[in-house]
Each structure stands twice: as C-alpha cells, then as structure tokens.
Amino acid sequence: MGDMFRSEKMALCQLYVQPEAAYASIAELGEMGCVQFRDLNDQVNAFQRRYVSEVRRCDEMERRVRYIEGQLRKDDIKMPHLDAEEEPPAPNPREIIDLEAQLEKTENELHEMSSNSASLNANFRHMQELKSVLENTEGFFSSQEIMNLDSNRPMESDDPAATQSAAQRGQLSFVAGVIKLERFFSFERMLWRISRGNIFLRRSDISGLCEDDETGHPVLKTVFVAFFQGEQLKQRIKKVCVGYHAEVYPCPSSAAERAGMIKDVSMRIEDLKMVINQSADHRSRVLSSAANHLARWTIMVKKMKAIYHTLNYFNPDVTGKCLIGEGWVPVRDLPTVQQALSRGAKISESTIPAFMNVISTNEQPPTFTRTNKFTSGFQNLIDAYGMASYREVNPALYTCITFPFLFAVMFGDMGHALVLIAFAAFLIIKERQLASIKEEIFTIFFGGRYIILLMGLFSIYTGLIYNDVFSKSMNIFGSGWRNQYNTSTVTDHSTPYLTLRPNISNFKTYPVGVDPIWQLADNKIIFLNTFKMKLSIIFGVFHMIFGVCMSVVNFIHYKKYASIILEFVPQVLFLLLLFGYMVFMMFFKWVTYNDSSRDQSLSPGCAPSILILFINMMLFGHQEPLDGCKEYMFEGQDMIQTVFVIVAVICIPWMLLGKPLYIKATRPKQLPAPNQAAAPSGGHGHGHGDNEPMSEVYIQQAIHTIEYVLSTISHTASYLRLWALSLAHAQLSEVLWNMVFSNGFRFSNYTGCIAVFIVFGAWSVLTVGILVLIEGLSAFLHTLRLHWVEFMSKFYEGAGYAFAPFSFKQILEDDGEN
C-alpha cells in the first residue's frame, strides 16, 4: 500500500545502443514493459525514418496473417488459445526470414486453392444448371415432330426444297437458360416488349435452393425457354439475358440428343464432385496446419512490428555507429532496464555493451502508480476522474476504505450484503477461468470484483448497526426496553398507541446497533430519519476535513509552505468553525439531553433544533424558547457562535487576497531562469506561474475562493444523499417484504408451502433485481460522486498524464480488445 501514497519517482534516461544489438535490446525492454520512449524524430516524415522498410515488411506479414485468419473463419476452424506462459518471444532476424517465407508459402497456397475452388464450384454449378435445363424442358417439345427446334443447329441451306418449306411456314427457334426467380417476371415483360408479343415463353422452377453466382447465398432459380422467329430477335433476346444475368445453355430439341447429353453431364458432375471433395480435404489439412501456428505467428509479427516502430523513435549519432533513444523509467526499475540492455547485447553478440544515462529535465514526468489486482479497481476509479499530477497525493489509497464504507452507509442491509459477497466471491474464486471473457459489461464487473467484495463486507457491518436483514431486525442480545403496562391496558382497543418513556421502560443499552424494538414502533421512521440524517452530516464533514488536510501533504511535498498559511489554514478554519461546530452540537445534544435528567431544561422536550440554531448563528438571530427551556445548550454559546462566524467571515478575504499579495511581494525576488518551468502544483493546486500577470492571479484566486466557500455549503448538504438513499433502500426492502413475501404466509396446510415457494421466487427476483442491482448501482454512483466532487476537489488537481510504457503485454491486450 505504501506504493499508492503518491506516484513513483520517474527518471528521464538516454539509451545508447549499437545498431546490431538494437533489435534484441528493445525486445528485452518490451518484455519488461518499464520504459516509455520519446520520439526523437517527431519532425521526420514517417516514410523517411530508418526502419521504415522493416515496418512495411511487418505490415505485409500482418496482412498475410489476417488473410489466413479470414480463411480460417470462413471454414469455421478455431485457433487454439495460447496462455501467457506459452507466448513466443520476439523472433530474431534469422527467424524473421523463415517466418516471412512460411507466411508467403501458406498465403500463395491458399490463394491458389481458393481460385481453383471457385473455378470448380462455378463449373459444378453450371453443370447442375445445364442438367436442370435438359430435364425441365422435357415437356416443352413435341416428341412426334422436331420442327427444326434446335438452338445450336443452323438451317441446311443446300436443300432448296427444305428452304422453301421453311420459308412458307416460318423458321421457329428457341433459347433456353436459367434465371433467378425474382427476376423472371421483369425478364418476361422485357422480352414481350422487345418482340412486340412475338415470343412464346415457358418456365419450370428448379426444386430446392441454388447458389448465387455473385453472392454465394442460396436463391430460387427457374428454367426458361423462349420460342421466337428470326435471327435478329435471337440477338436481342441474348442481350436481354446478359442484362438480367441469365445463363443461356445449349439444349437440343431431340429427345434422344437430350438424353445423351443428360448422361454426359451427369458423368461430368460426378467427376467434379470427386475433385471438389479432394480439394476441400487438402484445403482443410492446410488450414488445420496453419491454425496450429497462427496464434504464435500473430504474436511474433505484432512484437516484431512494435520493435521496429519503437526503433524509429531512436536517433543515430553523428558517426552513425550508435542509436540514441530517450524514455521515462521508474527509478525502481532502472536496474531492470540496465539488465535488459545487457541481455540484448549478449543475445546479439555485440562487442560493445549498451548503456543508460539518467539526464535531468524540467519537463513534467508521467504519472505511474504501481497496483495489483486488489488495488487496480480503486485506482481506475480515481484515474477516470483525472490522472494525478506527478508525485501528487493519490486518493486511491484512502478510497479503498472510504468508498466501500460510504456505499455501505446507503446500502446497509445484511441480507443484501450477503448477495454482493456471494457474487464477488464467485468472481474471485473463478478469476482464472473468467479472465478470458472479453464481454464489455462483464469486464467492468470483473475488474471491480474486489470493490464489490469490500462493499459487501462493509454493508454487513452497517446492516448490523442498522439491525436490518431483508427489512427485519435480529434480537441477538435481547431488547433493552420492557413493557410498563398491564395486560388490560395493552389489549384495550380504545387506546390508539402506547408510549414507552426511556427513564421508565429502558433498562439497558442495546450493545451493537439499533434496538430491535424499533421495528414495532410507530415513530420508527422519525427516529431513523433523525439518526441517519445527523450521521450523514457527521461523516460528510469528517470526510471533507480529511480532504482539506491532505492538501497540506501536497504543499509540503511541492515546498509551497506559504500555501499552508494562505490556503490551508483559512480553509480548514472556515470548515471547522461552521460545519465542524454543527457536528459538535449534534454530539453535545446527544450527550446532554436525556429523559433521566431532573433539570427540565435538559429534558428531550427542551432540546433545541440544531438546524434552527445554525441558521440563527449565521443570521445573528434569536428564538424564544418554550417555558422552562433555554435557547442555547450551554452558557456562553451565543458569544462563541458570534466569534466563530466573525472568524469564518475573516477567512474569506484571507483566502481571497493572501496568496495574490504574497506572490506580488515575493515575485521580484524569485525571478525564474528563462528555461525553467513552473513546478507542478498540488492541493486543489491551481498554482500561479511566476510569469502570469497579477490581474490573472487575482481573478483565478477569486474564482477558487468563491468555489470553496460555496462548495463547502453545497458539499455538506450533498452528503445528505447518504441519509436519503439509506432510507429509500430500507423502505423499498420493507415494501417488498410486506407486499410480496408476507402474502405467502396467509395460506395454511400444504397449500401454504406451495404458496411460500412461489412467492419466495418472485420476492427473490425482485430483491436481487431492484434492491441489489439497481439500488446497488445507484448507491455506487452516488458514492463515486461524493469522492470525485466533495472529497477530491479539496486537494486533488489531476493534471498529469499516464505512464504508457512500451510493453508487449499491453500491446497484445489492446489488440485483443479491438
């Protein structure tokens, strides 16, 4: 946890690497994942860099890998999953040549098989359509007279008698083919128009679905035969067939010729089937072999491309015999980086070892917080608001406790908490198996599994304090109240209600939480309202005070000691003297006023309203007390309140003018160097640069002062959401019990068991869906707002940028998500 107090120290390093050892050294650094490289060639075009040809080679290999992967998906062949320990390292230069040759060979082989398969399938499809044409046109011709009806046989012009006979009765020709059924009716109208009705069209639908030549999808097709006269009309019909993508096939009019042709086509179809099956088997073997290696090929190509892309960030020295790179490295990882460079030089058998040099800079380093699987969820909540400035206090460390606690204040129910714990425990126990699931919504819940676990555990505690289990209370220690009335008084229906006075009926304090007798009280909601309302204000004020105090840590770290006097002191005084005093009055009222007091002014009936006292304090007003009561809770309270308000008002110009006047007074003595950058600000920071005009300084400080004063009031009221959601959750739980589950107890005998079983199912679904899921998400979002706005705004600047190291693991994870 010590690593999370603030971000790690970073160092800007220069790396000196020999060109022959550069590839292996960057590969080792990529495996370590602890260097964020800077682009030293940002002014150079991407196509003019040193390793652009290698990057293009990697792009080509990546394209081939995608092509092979597409062929695998096309044939529904799944690649075996590689575990993290099975991932191959980046290939060395010798392996790159072999990998490139293997990918080229596999791609060419698949290309050839795909083209051959497309040709065979097209031929097979045409043979099937031809067979359908020959079979379905059987009824279109007369078996007794041929009448020269042959689409492929020209007229014999050597016989004058035949020519004269044909001329007398007219030569009748035909065209046969296959067309999509959806296009046939438009095709028929078009033929009718171009022939002016001088055409006779017949069709016969092909049974079953046929494969579309263009899309490959199954479609309905039909066989057509068009009878006509004249060569000119025949050419027109063929042009229409081309326009409608209708396939025209030869079809003899003689039954004997058709039978012979059908037999020949059937034999060719069987031959094609055999060849297609053999080609499919060969393709399957090639793809299965490629699938076994494709995952490793993919990782190797991605790592190789990332290495050359990173090497393009390096600059050659003047002699060209050394590559110089720069990058941010966590100080703790400097020995690791040096070891990785040494390993890279050893692998490449370089005679000159690579070395690293830490350089000083005024540039703001990136922010890096080392986390584990438990703390990463809480850190992600903070980073979603804004990346912390370099070495700024990290709120995630305290959020690990305050976040689940404030959630539990709103969600406090032991029964519902057990549901959360069970769900979180399942995610944690099965985290190895569930980590591979990449579904977006599930990934969010899985990443926050430890947050859900802590929210459930804290809700167990608050549920115990509220004594609330599915809207029912537990009588573990025995109630501290006793009945002071006799039986006749209790059973008298004319008495609307009975009052139990604490000094008579209360004989002990319930050890832990709320006494279960409040479950039966008519004023239960009134009591819990006041209890939870005051509790939410108390937690809110302490939470905000803690946030303001955290700004001191930032001021000390950034050596802004004047800000402690000029910002922290007036801020914390303003908060303590107003709302801290209000919290004090709550505790004083609880301790002082009780039913056992003999002084009437200290009885519960004389207890003043904290809200009215606070309003009168701010307005310097007064309120006449009841007879026998006092306006104030203790002597001298009026004078103390007046002093507190005056000091709080003085704090406003203190915050408004203190820092600008200090900057104005010290500016001539602290002129920065020309190239010196302003130190990062912290603690609700908004640091003012030394070169900034004083008018800007006054305006910014005025904005921050107004923001703090107004937000102190609004943020205190904002914590009332703890009371509101806690009350709403308890009431919804009680409504579900009374309106749903209790109905199952109205039946007797065996019907009651069945009714309870059915009603329990409905009640449990509504409980999990509404009270656990929806109410839980609502409480989660409200808790997130309390941390982002009410807590972190007191000290957190969030103006940094994240540390993004060159890491193979991160590159592969990002590619997997995309």
UniProtKB/TrEMBL annotation:
Presence of the UniProt keyword Nucleotidyltransferase in the record: no
Superkingdom field: Eukaryota
Alphabetized UniProt keyword annotations: Coiled coil, Hydrogen ion transport, Ion transport, Membrane, Transmembrane, Transmembrane helix, Transport
Localization: Membrane
A GO molecular-function annotation: ATPase binding
Short name of one Pfam family: V_ATPase_I
GO cellular component, one term: plasma membrane
Membrane topology: Multi-pass membrane protein
Biological process, per Gene Ontology: vacuolar acidification
Segments crossing the lipid bilayer: 405-429, 441-466, 537-556, 568-590, 642-662, 747-774
Coiled coil: 96-123
Keyword Lipoprotein: no
Main location: membrane
Function: Essential component of the vacuolar proton pump (V-ATPase), a multimeric enzyme that catalyzes the translocation of protons across the membranes. Required for assembly and activity of the V-ATPase.
Family indicated by similarity: Belongs to the V-ATPase 116 kDa subunit family.
Protein name: V-type proton ATPase subunit a
Species name: Drosophila navojoa
Lineage start: Eukaryota, Metazoa, Ecdysozoa, Arthropoda, Hexapoda
